[in-house]
Specification:
Length: 271
């Protein structure tokens, strides 16, 4: 057979990790001797995904993205984890998984959606587009989205109406490390173009800035939500630790149960 599946040596392979009786190898490095106690978890995660260790500047920006996405309060993903733990306290992995499954177009998935939106615009501009080209492309893309009634990912936040405090910090760290690339630049132009087109200034949210930063670090848009999930897993573990020590899920469930109105017949209409 001519394809790779005809020979198991060609397709059944991995360059990530392998184990022998006396060693574990990760991306060509001895885990115990070269990585443990030498690299941080952030550097290790970068190595696993990119196949190389990050530069100090990349480490700082990548780490800041993970920190920015780890937790944002009692969000639906966290509530799902806490309530799942209430029902199955013997399965912490189930509670973590329940929280992570809610990482979609409203929570966490914005990281990927923004990276995809920006990447699609940049794909049509060629290599190293100038600021004028970015501005023109942003104006065109925003006009098309607004005319079609589509939401533009990376803009607006339900709590941070004027400025998401994570955003300027991510931009500053990218600039300090010389890593402010076309995705981050384009996102600023998108926000400005949207404000001009609609008369409504929406801030660049932290998830959008994180997605742009990850794309400028060289990660493909299809992968960046994975880093958001990685970060949020840490936040969910923190919430579950609090739930174990100071439970709220039972009170939350009882409050909803007590205040819920049972309606017979036709389902109530949305306001």
């Amino acid at each position: 057979m001519s394809d790779d599946h005809g020979d198991s040596a060609n397709w059944l392979r991995t360059g990530i990790g392998a184990s022998t009786p006396d060693a574990i190898t990760i991306r060509g490095r001895d885990l115990a001797r070269e990585l443990m106690g030498t690299v941080t978890f952030t550097e290790h995660a970068f190595l696993l995904a990119a196949g190389r260790l990050p530069t100090p500047g990349e480490t700082k920006l990548f780490d800041a993205v993970l920190v920015a996405l780890a937790d944002h309060g009692l969000t639906p993903t966290v509530l799902a984890a806490r309530l799942t733990y209430l029902g199955a306290p013997e399965s912490i992995q189930g509670a973590i998984a329940a929280g992570l499954l809610g990482g979609g177009s409203v929570f966490l998935g914005v990281v990927e959606d923004t990276a995809r939106f920006l990447h699609a615009i940049l794909d049509g501009l060629g290599a190293d587009p100038g600021d004028d080209a970015l501005q023109a492309a942003a104006t065109e893309a925003v006009a098309e989205a607004v005319a079609a009634g589509r939401r533009i990912p990376g803009l607006g936040h339900p709590v941070h109406k004027v400025e998401d405090p994570r955003t300027p910090r991510l931009y500053a760290l990218a600039a300090e490390g010389g890593l402010a690339g076309p995705h981050l630049d384009l996102l600023r132009h998108v926000a400005a173009a949207h404000a001009k087109a609609t008369g409504k200034a929406l801030p660049v949210n932290g998830a959008g800035a994180a997605g742009a930063a990850l794309a400028d670090l060289g990660f493909p848009p299809a992968l960046v939500r994975g880093f958001a999930i990685l970060a949020r897993a840490a936040g969910i573990v923190g919430h579950l630790a609090e739930e174990m020590a100071h439970p709220m899920a039972m009170a939350l469930y009882r409050d909803v149960e007590d205040r819920a109105v049972y309606v017979t017949g036709e389902s109530p209409r949305r306001p």
